[in-house]
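# step 3/5: fold
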Amino acid sequence: MGLYHPVAIGSLTIPGNLFLAPVAGYFDRVFRSICIEQGADFTCTELVSSEALVRNPLYGALAHRASLEKNILSRGDNETRYAVQLFGSDPEVMYRATGLLAPYHPEAVDINCGCPVPKVTKTGAGSALMRNPVLLGRIVEAVVRGAEERLGGAPVTVKMRSGWDASSVNYRECARIAVEAGAALVSLHARTRSQGYAGTSDWSHIADLVSQVPVPVAGSGDLFSPEDAERMLRETGCAAVLFARGAMGNPCIFSAARSLLLTGSWELPTAEERLALGFRHLTHLATDIGEGSACREMRKQFCAYTKGLAGGAALRNRLVHAQTIGEYRDILSPLYRGSLSALFQEVGKN
């Protein structure tokens, strides 16, 4: 079997092994859809608060309203397979929240045991769960039960870190407990919580975990190029790779990685192609949450779309002040040639 191959997650089979990781504040349903167009095999929502879902069952329905904060649970138009990621520290609340996902019919439910952000960890959720493996196991059991009762037995996955800090690297124990509780896949970001996103991820932890658990392992951490994905798959033996920061503003990384794995080569997308995807992201997001909210949200998104491009800093300085789609178009359209300029002309007619 080659490096690019299907992945079986319980009863769910994903046709390939290039996954989009859940990243809060960046990977809305429009971006996930663009990533699928560009070759992502599986996607996941950003983390969703189980407490918020249970306190307000309408939380999910609000995903179609004008607040980006609520634009989380909605399935993208072309998302034939996606997961919803939940976070929380109360097994009963996680169980109830899982049941409330039924209207969205996710193909899987992912449990966040890796978020290092203080506002998450101070509640005992995210990577704080790795300090309490017994509670982690109870949460997995609760979500599995909820998925069996309300989601047709959709598989449950767990995303974790190597540990809380360098003195408590316990991914082996946490993964074992999660799998015994019913997790069908474990994703490992090979950094500790105390590292945050600093330093380098220790891929040897991923390789080790592959040898320790009977379920597929997805690897995460320092995947910024197609070559990184190829090397992680080859060196660790993981079943899939999770692109996170490497996909920000660069959804073409999926088609490039697939090309490298299948043909041995890939082509760098042009600046024009990346910016065209960003502009389409903006216009589709405006349909979901309104033009004003979308324009404000896309300021940070375009910081990612322009990263590494020639003249990117000057372009960002202009884009962060754009308040309407028309202003974005006026800034970007001079950079386009040929058929891609039709995209701006079409939007200008609406």
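# step 4/5: annotate
Residues 271-289 form the longest helix (19 residues).
# step 5/5: archive (pending)
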